[in-house]
Specification:
CATH superfamily of the largest domain: NAD(P)-binding Rossmann-like Domain
Helix content: 40-55%
CATH architecture of the largest domain: 3-Layer(aba) Sandwich
Number of helices: 13
Distance between the termini: 41 Å
Number of domains: 2
Radius of gyration: 21 Å
Structural class: alpha/beta
């Protein structure tokens, strides 16, 4: 059976990460095109083929992923040959660009899909929200879900849930890295080197994430309480976090991001 042909237009951080992750699976025939073609050089070594231009990529691909900036999306789709695009699957990872806008730009000639990734996709541990055009059938859905499942966790959402997803998961790495930095600096204050502190904190987050993933039925607060001995140092630290309202601040950050996202919707 021939490999599924996937092309990415716009091979910056996220588009390049998608190609890199898919190349590692060995399951796809991959094509890339971007305005600065030199960015493709590391990917060529991994088996990605450089297209001559965007339409050449479309002609060779069954699934076309658009990794361009949101303000470029309509112009890029408008420049594509609709005869070449007809009947194919067009996936946009541009934030804030609706299915309606995508379909209009594509003259409704193909199946369109919205995808919202987060930056851990760059290490094939992303979370991807997917929203499909009504004309997408089971075959198209399974095809797209299979592609992104090779790069992380996929969730199919209604389009109106995309902004909340972005506020919680798309922006989530910023919250997590902020928390990590706070712990790293605390470690340095306690006398560890920055490298030691960062290494330990990184493994702390990775280990806790694995525990949560492998014990989905156990409440997170129960997992927290398992670390707290009566009158011990851990409960003293947890009480200090509660005094500062850390959980409430995280919730407030997500709600603020969601509000801003609503303002930015097209």
């Amino acid at each position: 059976m021939a490999n599924l042909c996937v092309g990415v237009i716009g091979c910056g951080n996220m588009g390049g990460a998608i190609l890199k992750g898919l190349a590692a699976t060995g399951k796809y025939s991959l094509y890339g095109w971007t305005r600065t073609m030199k960015r493709l050089d590391p990917l060529l070594e991994k088996g990605v083929e450089a297209a001559q231009d965007a339409n050449d990529l479309v002609s060779k691909s069954s699934v076309i992923i658009l990794g361009v900036k949101p303000y470029q999306i309509e112009d890029v789709i408008g420049s594509l040959d609709k005869d070449l695009l007809s009947g194919k699957i067009l996936v946009s990872i541009a934030a804030g660009t609706s299915l309606k806008t995508l379909k209009k730009a594509a003259d409704n000639c193909c199946t369109v899909v919205r995808c919202m990734p987060n930056t851990p996709a760059m290490v094939s541990r992303g979370v991807f929200a997917l929203c499909f055009d009504k004309k997408a059938g089971d075959r198209e859905k399974k095809c797209v879900e299979g592609i992104f499942a090779d790069l992380g966790l996929c969730v199919e959402l209604a389009e109106e849930q995309f902004t909340p997803f972005s506020a919680l998961i798309g922006a989530g790495p910023a919250y997590v890295f902020d928390l990590m930095e706070g712990l790293v600096m605390a470690g340095v204050t306690l006398g560890f080197s920055h490298a030691q502190s960062r290494s330990m904190v990184t493994e702390l987050f990775a280990g806790c994430a694995k525990m949560a993933a492998e014990n989905p039925a156990e409440h997170l607060m129960a997992m927290r309480d398992n670390v707290c001995s009566p009158a011990g140092l851990t409960i003293a630290g947890v009480n200090a976090m509660n005094e500062d309202g850390l959980s409430a601040k995280l919730g407030k950050a997500v709600l603020k991001a969601n509000k801003r996202g609503r303002e930015m919707e097209d």
